[in-house]
Amino acid sequence: MYFLDHPDSETQICANSLLAAKVQDIFSVIFVFSVLEVYQFARDASVAEAWLIAHEPYLTSTEYGETLDMVEALIKKHEAFEKSAATQEERFAALERLTTV
Fold first, then answer.
1. What is the largest CA-CA distance in the chain?
2. Cα–Cα distance measured from residue 23 to residue 21, given in angstroms and rounded to the nearest whole number
3. 3 state SS of 101
4. Residue 68 CA neighbour count, 13 Å, CB half
5. How far apart are CA 85 and CA 89, in angstroms?
6. Which residues, 6 or more positions from 87, have their beta carbon under 8 angstroms from its beta carbon?
7. With contact defined as beta carbons under 8 Å apart, do 25 and 75 qualify?
8. 3-class DSSP state of 43
9. Residue 41: CB partners within 8 Å, gap ≥ 6?
């Protein structure tokens, strides 16, 4: 019973309780940030998927153009698609890096 009656033991118990509370707070913050990262990944993946779905008809089209004007219009559409794809490439790479870590 010496341990419980000793004044230093109460101080140590209080210190341990405070330390345990701080550790719990730290783990709570880590958990919140982990959940936030999951939601951000889900949002970014959803945006990427929507972009792919929106461009799928263009990629599966068998239209080649019947006149010079139509062909030139298709070439312009293709150049616009290439620019858009280049912009999206970094986003897809970022998502891929998150899934391979």
1. 100
2. 5
3. coil
4. 0
5. 6
6. none
7. no
8. helix
9. 95, 98
Domains (range + CATH), the chain: 2-100 (1.20.58.60)
The two tokens of residue 39 are 């939601």
What is the distance between the alpha carbons of residues 18 and 10, in angstroms, rounded to a whole number?
Answer: 12
**CA 100 to each of CA 34, 50, 94: distance values in angstroms, whole numbers, following the listed order:** 16, 22, 10
- pLDDT tens sequence across 68-96: 999 999 999 999 999 999 999 999 998 99
First to last CA, the chain: 52
CB 37 within 8 A of CB 97: no
Detail the DSSP E strand segments found in 1-101: none
CB 48 within 8 A of CB 88: yes
Mean model confidence pLDDT for the chain: 88
Q: Quote the CA–CA distance of 90 and 9 in Å, as a whole number.
A: 57
Tell me if residue 21 falls in helix, strand or coil. helix
